[in-house]
Amino acid sequence: MNFPTLSDIRAAHERIQPFIHRTPVLTSTAINEIAGCEIFFKCENFQKVGAFKARGAANAVLKLSPEQKAKGVATHSSGNHAAALARAASVAGIPSYIVMPSNAPEIKKKAVKGYGGEIIECEPTQKDRETTLEAVVERTGATFIPPFDYLDVIEGQATCALELLEELPDLDVVIAPVGGGGLLAGTALTVHYLNPKTQVIAGEPTGADDAFRSFREGAIIPNTTTQTMADGLLTTLGKLPFAIIQKHVEDILLATDPEIVEAMRLVYERMKVVIEPSGAVPLAALLANKERFSGRKVGIIISGGNVDLGKLPF
């Protein structure tokens, strides 16, 4: 399997640059004091569509051939990838077909429609999502762009850590959240190429800990049930990301929902920044394992800021 090289990742960054933000890196003295280390937050909550997903979707769409572009793109997603792909397609002037479970949040459906995506609803099971998508692809000839188990998407997500390490080349650790694994895999590749001494660690909710268990067992062990407020991390780990994670990730640390709420609240109060529960998981995992990071320079990727402000957990 040929994983993206550093020159592939740099080319992806060049390719998607006109369509994404170079997001800021923020710090907080107050949070550093609480954590006992120096933290640099890469704020993808300020990214287009409010999440890092804009990177992978843009890269995948821009790499399509003219023939593929003419027929558009399709995916199944109830979250940020749906909006990111609809937006990338709209920017490229091509159609997008988004299969969404009937119970997907209204705010996410609104975002997809706003970007000109055609929503096809299905029952909220993985099987229904997949069979509905197959029918859509057959009907339209659109190219399926998966949310994380796809090299062009991983390559796009890798550009986030590229920006972070260009700014801060000497970090001791970079922590990213893990759900499907696209962001973590991309981060691990970039860090490995630019500074192999920097450790890559993932944060994951205890209520959806398939990556944690898979990492320890050396084989993908899917979740049978999930229960966490970090709705962006409910997906089962993808095969391609897992292969990269096994090679280049140091460890996966868990955080409970109360710890996630605490970390989220800390960022709201001390940094005045809106982040979603999934985006708070790396900080929650760090705070639950403070001794491990004591005195170190830590980069944290805040993955997104798409949160229903009417349902804040505090």
Descriptive notes:
- Pfam families: PALP (PF00291).
- Keywords: Magnesium, Pyridoxal phosphate.
- Residues 16-304 form the Tryptophan synthase beta chain-like PALP domain.
- The protein contains 14 helices and ten strands.
- 48% of the residues lie in helices and 15% in strands.
- The radius of gyration is 18 Å and the shape is globular.
- The chain has two domains: 6-52 and 150-311, 3-Layer(aba) Sandwich (Rossmann fold), CATH 3.40.50.1100; 54-144, Rossmann fold.
- α8 packs across α9.
- The chain has helices at 6-16, 29-35, 53-62, 66-71, 80-92, 106-114, 126-140, 151-167, 182-194, 210-217, 239-248, 257-271, 277-288, 290-293; strands at 25-26, 38-43, 73-76, 96-101, 118-122, 143-144, 173-177, 199-205, 251-255, 297-302.
Secondary structure tally: strands:
10
| Count of alpha and pi helical runs | 14
Shape: globular
CATH topology of the largest domain: Rossmann fold
What is the CATH C level class of the largest domain, in words? Alpha Beta
The helix/strand order is HEHEHHEHEHEHEHEHEHHEHHHE
How does the major sheet shape up?
Answer: 6 strands, mixed
Task: Give the tags.
single chain; 314 residues; alpha/beta; Rossmann fold; 2 domains; six-stranded mixed β-sheet; four-stranded parallel β-sheet; 14 helices
Short summary:
The chain has 314 residues and is of the alpha/beta class. The chain contains 14 helices and ten strands.
Secondary-structure topology with pairs:
Elements: H1 6-16, E1 25-26, H2 29-35, E2 38-43, H3 53-62, H4 66-71, E3 73-76, H5 80-92, E4 96-101, H6 106-114, E5 118-122, H7 126-140, E6 143-144, H8 151-167, E7 173-177, H9 182-194, E8 199-205, H10 210-217, H11 239-248, E9 251-255, H12 257-271, H13 277-288, H14 290-293, E10 297-302
Parallel strand pairs: 2-10, 3-4, 3-6, 4-5, 7-8, 7-10, 8-9
Antiparallel strand pairs: 1-2
Helix pairs in contact: 1-3, 1-8, 3-5, 3-8, 5-6, 8-9, 9-11, 12-13
